[in-house]
Amino acid sequence: MLKQHLTSILGVAGLVVLGIFMATSCQKTQSVTAGFGTDTASQVYVAPGEYDEFYAFMSGGFSGQVTVHGLPSGRLLKMVPVFSQHAENGWGYNEETKGMLETSYGFVPWDDSHHPELSMTNGVPDGRWLFINANNTPRVARISLSTFETDEILEIPNSAGNHGSPFITPDSKYLVASTRFSVPIPQADMSIEEYEGNFKGTLTFVRADEPGDMRIAFQLIVPGFNYDLAHSGKGPSDGWMFFTSYNTEQASTLLEINASQNDKDFIAAVNYRRAEECVANGASRQMDARYMHNHINPATRIAESELQTSVTVLDAGACSDMIYFLPTPKSPHGVDVDPTGQFIVGGGKLATVIPVHSFDKMIAAIEAENFDDVVEGIPVLNYEAIVAGEVQNPGLGPLHTEFDGRGYAYTTAFISSEVVKWSLETFEVVDRIPVYYSVGHLMIPGGDSQQPWGKYLVAMNKITKDRYLPTGPELAHSAQLIDISGDKMRMVLDFPTMGEPHYAQGIAAEVIMDQQVKIFPLEENEHPWAAKSEAETGVERRGNEVHIKMTSIRSHFAPDNIEGIKVGDKVYIHVTNLEQDWDTPHGLAVLGQNTAEVLMMPGETKTLVWEPKAPGVYPFYCTDFCSALHQEMQGYIRVSPSDAITPLAFHTGN
Ligand code: K7E
Ligand code: CUA
After folding, report:
1. Residue 60 Cα, ligand 1 centroid: separation in angstroms?
2. DSSP-assigned states of every residue in 137-160
3. What is the pLDDT of residues 19-69, one digit of tens each?
4. What does the pLDDT look like over 407-449, one tens digit per residue?
């Protein structure tokens, strides 16, 4: 993304300018750090044993995952695997979770995740779920905030680069997914030169409020621009969704120049209740499409994948009064709606101002049919008629805006490496603070909702340079915590992050800390190979497949001595963790296995597949230091030649 941003925002000449700018920025570090005193230190200090006030969910960017940090300390609490295999707990490696990474393209072990999004009730983050997008192979995922585990992934068909996603409505009914790249829809072998008019974009509305049952309500087929980001309306603008677009030039090559021609691109304003009506009235059509829906069955805790074969599409021209283009300077990136729902802020990355559209004026312009143009059946509203104001001197390269709930907006400026604070009343900049360096998104807990917790702001920077001890060519990305509780912003902490966090979301810890699942009740475990007591353990041969039903409890496995396995066998070791105490996982690993460990939470069954290659005696052991006798938690499996007649035998104890 950095490279995209750099080239798209700056072009080659601009990169040179940025280089000079960064050199000067770097010199500022000294004076800034010099201003830190004990007040600042105590503000972010969370004493041993104490809890942070906020959870921050940071996207893992090209790691494909999500990390959870505490604020204000910045401490890393957890990494939640989502779109990428994660050897630490076997996510995407073991039999139970492999299915979560199935797509219409087959098994995909990686993705690039940008935007975490908390579920909301009445426009306020409610702590039920976190959603996140996969950019490369278009998907959206649901993470439960009771288990901090991914339990559902839906692929998005007719999309290519699921960037503008998964922004959610105030009631969590829908999340959206807009395609960054326009492509032929349906896909077709076509000359790239035939882009204009033939390539299309899609804006997808996914039903999100029923866990385990995410599904596509409808997809809008829209002109072949690049759709970038989105945000839902709220309050008066509830029922509308706003999507930025760039490359309204419909260029297919050298976009840094060719997609930077128009002074204004568009924010697409979609009245999705009108879209619902059109679908209900039969204006939509069913289209063949292949996409996967994966979810973890809560009873077995095994991923179930289902290929979907049809999607409801609605051509923008087939539904009047549904979609309007708001002209917005220039190649806008973020679109953010203030807590009152009245102002729609465009992050025009090549613009010299921050355009702020008024929702009321937009409605008035629609009613007055104050249109400048019609593009592929979509009215383009008159800019002067809808703009509430333009923030002057907002910094160079404005990208993203969040809000404090006290009448101020905060916008990141990528090129000038700063956060600017401006008034939603006067549209004047009231404060600015340098950040280090090249900030992308920013996050205020609840800062895109109707009720921000307007105490802290996290700037997520693309370039780290001299902020930490150097670690070779690749440096950790840098997040910076800014206190926004007073008139003046104050930088209070740097903390490194994983992958490349684009966006993040935050929520008061008290909203979710008491809903945590501590164990999975054994009696509710419906895994077909669960052993709910040591009496239920055993070994079963089915031709070349051997299934071992094993249990783990501090501090032994049962069985822990197994014989009768042969070279050429495919051995499924199903381990049920019999513990029913919080924070007592066990792990399992076997010498020479070609996969990751499995890590079983209390009450859960996980399956490790092992195909022994040569005769011998193979130890296995518990990988998670679970008790004083953890190091005793081990066993042996004897492997005989393929033609041996070693009988199947297993035991624990003598
Ligand atoms: Cu990097 Cu939201 Cu993908 Cu902006 S995005 S920074
Ligand atoms: Cu079980 Cu270590």
Report:
1. 12
2. TTEEEEEETTTTEEEEEEE-TT-S
3. 434 434 444 444 444 456 667 888 899 999 999 999 999 999 999 999 999
4. 999 999 999 999 999 999 999 999 999 999 999 999 999 999 9
* Pairing status of strand 66-71 against strand 54-59: antiparallel
Q: How many C-beta atoms surround the C-beta of residue 580 within 10 A?
A: 15
Atom 6, ligand 1: which residue's CA is nearest?
A: 440
Mean pLDDT within 363-383: 97
Kindly report the pTM of this predicted structure.
Answer: 0.94
What local confidence, expressed as pLDDT, does residue 41 receive? 83
Per-residue model confidence (pLDDT) at position 40? 81
User: Would the CB of 441 count as within 6 Å of ligand 1?
Assistant: yes
Decide if 603 contacts 580 (C-beta within 8 A).
yes
CB-based contacts of 72, cutoff 8 Å, min separation 6:
43, 44, 46, 52, 53, 54, 456, 481, 492, 493
Q: Closest Cα to atom 5, ligand 1: which residue?
A: 502
The number of the ligand nearest the C-alpha atom of 116 reads: 1
For range 149-176, the mean pLDDT: 98
In angstroms, rounded to a whole number, what is the distance separating the alpha carbons of residues 63 and 501?
Answer: 9
Q: Whose CA is nearest to atom 1 of ligand 2?
A: 586
Residue 324 and residue 344 in contact, taking contact as beta carbons nearer than 8 Å: no
Instruction: Report whether residue 1 contacts ligand 1, using a CB cutoff of 6 Å.
Output: yes
Alpha helices in 531-605 (DSSP H): none
| pLDDT number for residue 452 | 98
For ligand 1, say whether the CB of 115 is within 6 Å of any of its atoms: yes
| 463, 502, 505, best to mutate for ligand 1 pocket (most atoms within 8 Å of CB) | 502
Is 187 exposed, middle or buried, given 0-12, 13-18 or 19+ CB atoms closer than 10 A? Answer: exposed
What secondary structure does DSSP assign to 32-87, as a single string?
A: HHHT--HHHHHHH---TTPPPSEEEEEE-BTT--EEEEEETT--EEEEE--SS-BT
